[in-house]
Fold each of these.
Amino acid sequence: MNALYENYFRKNLPHIWCSGCGNGIVMSAFARAMEQLGYDKNKTTAVSGIGCSSRITGYLDLNTLHTAHGRALPFATGVKMSEPEMNVFIFMGDGDCAAIGGNHFIHACRRNMDMTAIVINNHIYGMTGGQFSPLTPFGKKATTAPYGSVDPAFDLCELAKGAGANFVARGNVYHAKQLTDLIVAGARHKGFSLIEVMATCPVSYGRHNKMPKPIELMNHIKENTVSLARAAKMTPEELEGKVVNGILHQVDGKEYCQEYQNLLDRIQGGGK
Amino acid sequence: MSKVRLVQGNEACALGAIAAGATFYAGYPITPSTEVAEQIAVLFPKIGGKFIQMEDEIASIGAIIGASAAGHKSFTATSGPGFSLMQELIGYAAITEIPTVVIDVMRPGPSTGLPTLSSQGDIQQARWGTHGDHSIIALSPSSVMEAYYETIQAFNLAEKYRTPVVLLMDEEIGHLKERFEVNDEEKPEIINRKAPEPGKEYIPYENTEDMIPPFAVFGSGYRYHITGLTHGEKGFYSSALPVVDAMIRRLWHKIEDRVDDICRFEQVDTADAEILLIAYGSTARSAEEAAEVLRAEGIKAGVLRPITIWPFHDQYIAEICQGRKAIIVPEMNMGQYVREVQRVVQDVPVHSLTRVDGEMITPTEITAMVKEVL
Ligand SMILES: Cc1ncc(C[n+]2csc(CCOP(=O)(O)OP(=O)(O)O)c2C)c(N)n1
Ligand code: SF4
């Protein structure tokens, strides 16, 4: 294994993921991002929920907390709030984050605590074998939508922006180099950062949607992704069905732990 | 010595938590527990503690587990509906062995039930509310001073045994105002979780002799994995049969084998008592008064007051009930504790006195029942 990866991965591989799964690409991109960020591993915590993607924490040589389905963000909130010096990353699946964890997600965005959430959106519940999630595109098939989903999907990035996240970006597992850059930029941004990663699940998603081979899903991502710059020049009709990549939103708002620290300083200084 | 003043049970819990060294609170408002959060919101900023109001009770317990993993004594307070929501993550704290304290100020249920009155209806939920086999510790105070001291004990036990601890307090005590006076010279011992031995390889879930592995807090240089999946001693998922078996059994035995250390009882006039009243929480106060009235009438009654509700000390209860004429267990539920007593007491009749309308059981109700069964 490449020395960089060896530094960030535990020695307990092989992992559980199917061949062609996008999760490993995200994990490698994250390791490269860690290298660029130069964070002390002892002062970095990775928190995840439950799902195939959430198993990432088991492989990373950090302080790792593999929590319960949908609940990664509350645990991360406790870690960060109690230890603001800790660098906190959260890994979630699309179901984990947007369905069962949806309420925690919007509130984490609203509080704007300095943490970086990486949501691996493979458009499906991978671990339980292919049921549709709130991010499964309308009409796509799943084991619980055998005739095509009639559920509309969230735009997770818009949701995060609306809820108050200060940094919102979208990347994918095809453009792996860009994904690393997005994670680095998200982590460096002070405040709550979301990086939605369009990912591949050939086994539970591709198979039901005429893309059973990993390469087909990769090509699908490649063909349907447009950069922010290109999207700016496209008409709404041209953008139909396309996924826009890049840093979609970035503002400097009040960061929660800093605000709480200000409150502590004020009260301990005798203020009201 | 602190100034003597009137303090409410809920406030006493907040003060007890601070005395125990708590520095992190996450919660969601719910009657009749809200005053705990309100007190902490006022007091924590003065001492540098962290208070956060979360979006719900699931988030609240998630946050306190996270903060505890990072080394902070952490707690939350709630009532029935919130306690129900917390159950999955109470199980998480149990299987990952992360010290946490949950104060459950009990109100009648199920569901929204009766928010403003009292109950002891969460006794069995505290024991079995989360799925799967595990053990747990639960304490029940009978007075405002005890709410203070038992909150300290709740933290001590959570730290010592690496377990969630539930403080089961009926609304009656939560909202009761009583004389409060803390003698600093008699400050109880404060227990902190055992840290890893420096220089020794750290095995996060090692099956140590005492069955309680040392706890390395996040950030202290030991990078390891915490998971709610069944795991081996190194902390990583395992489905290997002997590994799963050993893990579940250790979670059970580390508490169930320590009842002598964990369980505390108070006895009032039990030595010669023919009638033994077993009561906890506010009901114990009615029982004590009932026993006094009965004694004045020539009936030898006494009270056993369990302060520790869980684990249940089978042997202690069986022995103390031996040779009595009758046992009566009054409680503000349909008989949740009495079934445990009945399970271990064979030769003495055990009677249940129940009340579920939100009001306290009165001494008169107890004396009436004693006369009925005699
Ligand atoms: C409370 C609860 N409900 C349901 C489940 C079952 N479950 C496990 S993973 C999962 C979905 C995983 O999908 P996603 O979050 O998209 O992650 P992926 O596996 O695709 O990476 C579900 C429903 C669970 N573990 N806990
Ligand atoms: S089921 Fe899908 S998401 Fe899960 S490991 Fe396999 S390919 Fe990856």
Note: Strands of chain A lie at 44-48, 63-66, 87-93, 116-121, 167-172, 193-198, 225-227, 243-250.
Amino acid sequence: MTTNNKGFIQGLWDFFCSLKLAISLLIGLAVTSIIGTVIPQVPNIPEEYISSLSQTKLQIYDKIGFFDMYHSWWYILLLYLFTVNLVACSMKRLPRVWKIVTEPNLVLDEGLEKSLSLTRDLKLKGGLAALKDGFTGFLAKEFAAPVVTEKDGEVHLYAQKNPWCRLGVYVVHLSIVIIFIGAIIGSLFGYKGWVQITEGTSESKVLGRNNKPIDLGFAVKLEKFSVAFYETGAPKEFKSILTVVENGKPVPGYVNIPIVVNDPLSYKGITFYQSSYGPAGEGGTFYFTVREKKGGAPIKITARQGESVQLPGGRTMHVTESTQDVRQFIPQMSGPAARIEVHSPGKQPDSFIVFRNFPKLDEERGGDLVFSYDGSDEKFYTGLQVAKDPGVWIVWFGCTLMVVGIIMAFFMSHKRIWVRISSSGRVVVAGSASKNQPAFQGAFDELTGKMEKL
Amino acid sequence: MSSSMLFNVTTIVYMVSMIVFFAFLATKNKQIGLVGSWAAYAGWIIQTIAIILRWKESYDMGVGHAPLSNLYESVVFFSWTIILIYGIIELKYKYRVVGAFVVPFALLGMAWAQLGLHSGIEPLVPALQSNWLLYHVITCFLGYAAFAVACGISIMYLIKERQEKADGDSPAGGIFSMFPAIRILDDLNYKAIMIGFPLLTLGIVTGAAWANYAWGTYWSWDPKETWSLIVWFVYAAFLHARITRGWVGRRAAILSIVGFAATIFCYLGVNLFLSGLHSYGK
Ligand code: HEM
């Protein structure tokens, strides 16, 4: 029983230490990940897509978890297997590599010499002590300071460069585990939310997943919202001016902070991102100035959205639509504008646009009444994405580690040189590099060439 | 002189370079090979000037931004990075003939951009107004370009290997005798991916950093993100395959070609067939 058990555990360990498993898992993850890019994922599944599926298909997809596949049990299982494989494989190999780094072979004996492909035999004059000093100085100057070992009447020198880069691979593997840890912490202790704030008001709760309200512990006030457009009418900037309010008082340093897309506001680990906007829907009040073309004093008009207002001469008007920046509809114009409809007795209703930035323009329309638009107090709401993620710094640490590890693993090479000096004046030089051996061979030949002249 | 004229010149010069490279394959004349890579470099310099000019033109129009913001600009930049990576590998490892299998990718990009894509300079929408755009796009495309070069080398590998099998032990004749030995092609393939993999990793990390900065989530399984991860998995598999017995050579070459196909899908297919947050190609 015990041997069986041991065999099983050993087998399991070997299974998880296998590179073949790693390749299969990497390819398996690549292939299965495609599913979620083809099938819409929660919460962005269009109604039409659902109704286009047959009942059985819908049930099967739902059972397998295709609609939230990156959180399905089998995808998570793959990620766990991947992690166990990664850790086991690294643990098995790390001690050997650690030994190469920390306990290098200081003595160039025959066995080591045979195992190295780059060796050179030199015949030099001078005593053992002089040669020892000469080579030590030379290596320190041209390569790296050597460790000197005397053994059996011979002197052995060992010099190395970048020994730590051998650990690069393990740094990369560790970084993946760290990123996973950061992601798990984020999903356990953080949240994603959403809040809508109307100009002039504040909110202290946001809606989390499944519209569950989350208390922020402070409030955020929207002082003002504005939109700007390019001359082409394409949107240029969405801007919310926010103030953080805590215990009924504005927080110093967090008053009137503008946020735009790509420039959020963070307070106490909670970050607010500009995401959407719209009219607050209460129907603002619009202000106009009207005068008769034939002369007379201008009169001020106040109209609420949709409300009909009396004008001189039995006419009436109402506002049909309005915008804070007309450029998105009429690229040549800019600024706030309102479309109004004027009803004159016995005539067709007359519909036209007045622009706040062009108060004289309406004269050219040729109507009996000349309008100018003085603006509105229509309010906007801003839609903010809210996120708290205490794991994000761990993720960034992991990412940095990964990049460092990859650079160590790919672009650095552990270079080693051994020298054995005998009292007869025979000197054997050997070398090896963990990467790009041909390039190292060139450097080795150059070094040994110089050694000959020592 | 406008940037669009210079882009046309670039396209023609890449075409000349490709034709000369094919002539090099046919004639095995070293001088012709030299002309082929010179033409590629000349085209690249003209293209560099054109990209800078387009950058300036956008400022003259009052919507100044780096020319990396729509499909046209990204395809042009992709073709620029392909020649850049080719140049680095050629200068470092001295295998000129690789150009015959790499320049066509750059030419394809330029021809498509000039003939089939809308080339107007547009202002940046709010979502793209960030320096992260620059870091993210540059690292990703340099990575993609290295994979394109690796793919060209892998195609050469498969052709050469077949040729050698067909010819038995006799030295390979015909136009393929110019190719480096398959052992060298295998090594070059690995070296190109060693350039591409770190860059793709940086591209994914900068993308995640940007997403986190702009939206508050570094990873949301958006199709583009997921596909970049798929590409990353494939090349990670490639790197591990190389240190496993039995996976060097032919299988590695195939994996490299599959990786590049996934790369192209990540770049173009996702926008054409799937939907998501990334705006290229709309
Ligand atoms: C199941 C997961 C994984 C396992 C079991 C695994 C295992 C290994 C092993 C055993 C090595 C060889 C180390 C040596 O030379 O002694 C290695 C190398 C390496 N691994 Fe992984 N690995 C995994 C995932 C990854 C991933 C996702 C990456 C992504 C960055 C990665 C990056 C590397 C790199 C860059 C090397 C060096 C390759 C080279 O020198 O060409 N590994 N891995």
Note: The radius of gyration of chain A is 38 Å.
